[in-house]
Amino acid sequence: APAPPALLPYVPRVSTVALLGKITASTFVLERPQCVFDRHTNASDAVWLVVAFANASSAFRNPPSRADVPPYKRLLTAHSYMTLETAVTAYACSAPSPAVLRVGGDTACGGQDSPDPCNGPLPSPGPYRVKFLVMGCNGPIAETRWSDPILLRRAGSPSAIDPAPVRGGGTVVVIGAILASLGAVLAAAVLSAVGTKAWAYLCRRDLGTNSFARKSYRTHHIPPPLPLPPGCGCGCTPLGLGCSAPRPPGPCPAK
Fold first, then answer.
1. Distance between CA 120 and CA 114 in Å, rounded?
2. Where are the membrane-spanning stretches (predicted)?
């Protein structure tokens, strides 16, 4: 019987890097096992990821050869499959490689009848457990420990959405009142500024059109004619006063 594969102390885990979509309804992101297999492998070996339902991981048996690798399409019947076949050199300490591995991210993996390894979307929330298995020409060489259970997100049912608005607490009410007051003050300020500018414009326009009518012109004052001395007929010129008609004959009386 072949020797059992070496058990490595590494435990796979979900990546601790801050990523969007680290765990979704059909995928999850694993930390890449860098510098884990160097002492137990050859350059011709390949590293596989075993994915199993958490309650079926203890029943999984390592395949004796690559031809016996359980495919993705058997997940719902065999409760496990193997995927992400990668050359062991890609996990070497010196290999420049991505820091994470996304499980279930291949939405077009060639169809479930394809003989190639498929990394298709996971069909249910799980939970799942995973481990890495090194396969050589003569079968399994080394393996890691199983991960802790990984539970995917559940999609919300439309019927479970409450159509009623959510009632806020006292803090929400206070904040709403403050915002409403600030809005009213801002609107009043805007209207006041617009009204002031409009009034000033109308005043300037009125002054421009009626300025001529409002101007005051002082004409030369002509005093009324002084009365003539008694007995002096029209036309005499006593004391230098002029007349507008000829004087009757005879001298003017003396003053």
1. 12
2. 172-195
d(CA 10, CA 8): 6
SS3 49: strand
Structure token pair of residue 150:
């990984």
Distance between CA atoms of residues 156 and 232, nearest Å: 125
Structure tokens given for 173: 């009410």
The reply to whether 23 falls in a domain is: yes
pLDDT at residue 213 in the model: 44
Query: What pLDDT, in 10s, does the model give residues 50-100?
Result: 999 999 999 999 999 989 999 998 899 999 999 999 999 999 888 777 789
pLDDT of 86 reads: 92
Residue with tokens 């994470």: 100
Q: Residue 77 is part of a domain; what is its CATH number?
A: 2.60.40
Determine the Cα–Cα distance for residues 166 and 106; give it in Å rounded to an integer. 38
Question: Which one-letter amino acid corresponds to residue 30?
Answer: L
pLDDT confidence of residue 43: 84
3-state DSSP call for residue 210? helix
CA distance 162 to 147: 37
Residue 241 located in a structural domain:
no
pLDDT at 159 (0 to 100): 52
| Cα 85 to Cα 132: distance, rounded to the nearest angstrom | 10
User: Is the previous residue joined to 165 through a cis bond, with omega within 30 degrees of 0?
Assistant: no
- Residue 102 domain-assigned (yes or no): yes
Structure confidence at residue 241 (pLDDT): 46
Ranges of the chain whose pLDDT falls below 50: 160-166, 209-217, 219-222, 232, 234-245, 255
**Pairing mode of beta strands 139-143, 128-136:** antiparallel
